[in-house]
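Recap for those who missed Tuesday's class. We walked through two folding examples back to back. For each one, the amino acid string is listed first and its predicted structure tokens come directly after. Nothing is annotated here on purpose, so try labeling regions yourself before you check the end of the notes.
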Amino acid sequence: MDILLLSMASVFERERLNGHYGVTAFVIGNTLSAIPFLLLISLIPGALVYYLVGLHQGHEQFLYFTSVLFISVLLVEGLMMIVTSMVPNFLMGIIFGSGILGVMMLDGGFYRLPSDIPKPFWRYPLHYISFHKYAYQGLFKNEFQGLKFTSKQLGGPANFSGEEILRNLWQVDINYSKWLDLAILAGMAIVYRILFLVIIKCFEKMKPIVTAINFPQPNFRFTKVTRSNEIE
């Protein structure tokens, strides 16, 4: 996906210089044209994985699972478009974008529980601006809420609920619905697209100024030519 977006950025720059379309038309057209493809690559692998590992056998749960996958892929595409608009180098764009996604993944709450994440910088604010946090929490709630489990541990409770697993094991905030997590993901995807549009417009306005500073126009001196009163 990184290679595709970087190639698309170079195509857009060439087409924009030729005056074929504007920035807003490009962002809207790119988003609408990408939705069917992203929906397809979310639905097919999601259906294979969902029923292969035996997740919650409910139509609502499967719809939510594929929706989280779709919005997450759409969000990642928007994030990489922001990176490609700011990093002109092909290799640096891939490295920088992969680094951002790696940091978000580490702070999402899966590899380290929220209470174990260092509070300065890593938890506040990175943990809360990482889209993995809301994707993980939404998927955990989608799978465990409403289920009952039997414990075989001696001296412990005979039965426990899925909400207890979410609260005590995964440290998931169950005070709000999983659909709010999905809405936050959708809002982040929209914000990334708007931010991409703003960055491109700003760069488009700043480019003539930067060009004028780096390559100043030469000063031409005009000499006034007067005609002689007498013609020899």
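Example two. Treat it independently of the first, because the proteins are unrelated.
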Amino acid sequence: MKSRNTSQQNPDSEDKYTVLLPTYNERENLPLIVWLLVKYFGESGYNYEIIVIDDGSPDGTLEMAEQLQRIYGEDKIVLRPRPTKLGLGTAYIHGIKHATGNFIFIMDADLSHHPKFIPEFIKKQKEGDYDLVSGTRYRGNGGVYGWDLRRKLISRGANFLTQVLLRPNASDLTGSFRLYKKKVLESLIERCVSKGYVFQMEIIIRARQLKYTIGEVPISFVDRVYGESKLGGTEIVSFAKGLLILFATT
């Protein structure tokens, strides 16, 4: 096998990619997701940093992040913890303030999103100079693995209702594996009012309103191996309310 040529892999060497990793009780998953991120960014030759935003996890996630920082270096692993759980949207706002990249990846820290897709996101973004690129489980060879029927019905139902009511011109509204131009994400978050499960959907709707361009990359979503899902009845009710509010106001 021929060795990779970094200069060919990365013609736009001025670009830097910041990965925002909000965490809560992800001690078991964090070492592997960080290792995979380092591996795939390293092989692709792109400049990157990983910002871990831990919300006071009681399981020692922050202590694990500190160990990873000592292994990979403070320039690659940036720790920006918060004292308590304050919500996904505010975690992104907090992380962006410290991001030095001109592109932002958001993804889950629970291994549901495999970093092997990162080079495909970057390639897709550059092909169309897209403002954001969203991972989709519902187009091409994308898929979901490890979910029970209830979770599949919730996700499919949420996407179907959103497509019917809001027509967002994107196939996966509730996914959270995306690549943004930093300025675009800042602009979108300023306009978003939702929290939790509905937040990802609102970002896509706001992007459509502002006429930002959206590309899609098929991804395989795998249910978490360690820890418990944070999707519960409260999040489902919140999603339904958020969907109705967006339908009435957009």
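Answers for example two:
The chain has one domain: 17-248.
The two ends are 52 Å apart (CA to CA).
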